Amino acid sequence: MGYRGDVPYKENKEYLQEQIIGLNRFLSERLHLYDGERQAMFLVRKMEERMCKKELWEKSCYQEIWEQNQSRIELSLELGRVLYLERILRYFEEKEFFRQVFLLAFLWETDEWYRQCLSILLGKEIERLTLGDVMTIFFMDTGAEHMEVFDRVSEDLGVFRIFFPEFQEGTHLFRQPVVCDARFSDYFLDTDFFYSRGTSELTVSEQNGVIFAREGEKKRLLLAIEEEEVPICLLYGEKGSGKKTLLAKMAEERGEKLLLCRLDDNADSLKSSLHAIYMQMRYALRDAIVRKFLLVLQGFEELEEKKVKEFLSFIRKEIFPYVKEIYLLYDREECSITKEGLYFVPFHSLTEKERLMVWEHYRKRLSEKVMVSEKVVLEEIANTFVMTPGQIKQAWEDAYLEAKGEEEGITQNILYHACYAQLGHPMGEKATLVKSEFTMQHLKIDEMEKKILSDICDCIRCRNRVMRKWQFQRVVPYGAGITVLFAGPPGTGKTMAAQVIANELHMELYKIDLSQVIDKYVGETEKNIRRIFSQAKKSHSILFFDEGDAIFHKRLEATNSNERFANIESSLLLQCIEEYDGIAILATNHFSSIDPAFIRRFKYYLLFREPDKKIRYEIWKEVFPKEAPLSEEVDFEVLAELFELTGAVIKNVALTAAYLAAARKEEITLLDILTAVKREMYKNNLILTREKLKSLGYLYDELL
Q1: What's the CA dihedral at 443, 444, 447, 450 to 10 degrees?
Q2: Which of 104, 386, 532, 601 suits 415 as a labelling partner, its CA being 20 to 30 A distant?
Q3: Are 35 and 44 in contact (CB under 8 A)?
Q4: DSSP states of 10-30 as a string?
Q5: Is the pLDDT of residue 296 over 80?
Q6: Are strands 258-262 and 342-346 parallel, antiparallel or unpaired?
């Protein structure tokens, strides 16, 4: 049965086989030029034996074979068959020469026998096939001038670099290696074992196919796509904000496919040379062209700032002209890149209502796997943590793993821990994370002050209802955070009260040392202040500024530059506190030194007084754990009556007394407590006399 040009190819392998037949005829004709050389003629006979069953081999010359093949190629393409080599060749005007380049490179890598043929044709042993070698074989004795061939190939050198990424810039054209890598072999053999390094298909299934509150971003992208010349789209926002999810969903709706290239797979190159990045980009572009994918690039925000411009120039010149659409993903909240030639689409943080919607969505998905406690209040969590959809999804997964085997299932505490694990926002040397297990019961202050603390907690719990549902955000467009001023002598419970609030709300408490924030160099204090609030806003951590009078002192008349800068710093800190959506607490031991104008701008004010006898008695009762061996002779009412101590001092006394008793390996006695009191008074330049002990004066001589 003769060759039929009206039968399309069934697969790439059949197509490739006929291409090789044509190439063999071409090589055979070249080898005949070596008539008389036994090795060349032996190879010709072997080649004929290899193809003896192929009717095409009987054709008179390579050109006729090519013409016969062409009808099958065109018919196959018309019927929608995917012939990867032909798809590549459509990028070239001189298809014939480039066909030989691709086929020779493929056979060189896959068949040792062809290496022998090419070595004979070139008259030398070669370790690596170069473009010059291919040109010598193809144009041998054709009459083509050397420079004419050189000029013809030079015009398409940029495209050569795409399909042979190993091409080195600055190297002589003829010496460039022509390497058919394993991925390129896949194109010929119609297999799909792997993608090039750092690339993969971006699909909806991988991204869950759920888009949360991104209709605005979707609309902007669709408008850009509808333009006659689609720009390079740069999508920026926090990692997990939904950039890849939106692109994958849009591509599915449009019948397109996406190739994701992760530049951060070349992490070392991002910080040094761009050469490896460019090579990775060419590999990705080749995949995108052959498979007709759109290109998505992720991770270039890790580039040094000075290299970003060079990288974008490379994208515009060597990548953008060959693909239908390019999307750059920039995993940062803000983008300082110039907009020249780029279409920007910001992915801003979700609102509290939108975050709640995401929390509820993943709760339903997990309900079949694990129990979620009825006490879990997702509204509180959504109000507290500014998280992306990706972070919320991962927090649920972490909570699921932590709750396995627990009778209650996923609890509020487990979810809070999972959220903080996701955010991971170290505050650095300017702040210290304060751990706390204190509750309202541990705090010994007046009931009125406790009620104010409860009100502060309720402001966070009910903020979404008041600000969003009841629309108070229209009345108070900014300053939705909670600003609190704690004033009072040292040891009266200011720090403990902040810990109680943090524990009640399951929030992290960071203690800010203002002495570390204030810097002698101009502008550094402002940087420190902005950095603290920038890091804290993602989790609405409670910020506790101790010794606030260090910066909120009464404003000066600004007679010199130092005083002017001091006024600027205090105003900036107050502005940041007011704009902060979380809780900011300022504590001071010297209330009178703070400017009254600052005090009026705090929403809550608590004055912590030294405890009276009743409260001192409650503190004495609570300060010794039940496990501590306390002598029955200790009378807390007497101690509360005799010593006007603050809560912090009473705790120090209890601890010192415990160590005194532990050293003797005996119980804690009244004498231990009085000795500890004496030492605390000595620290403050006070003397404990027999008269001050009153009814306990009989123990005075035994005090150490």
Answers
A1: -20
A2: 532
A3: no
A4: SSHHHHHHHHHHHHHHHHHHH
A5: yes
A6: unpaired
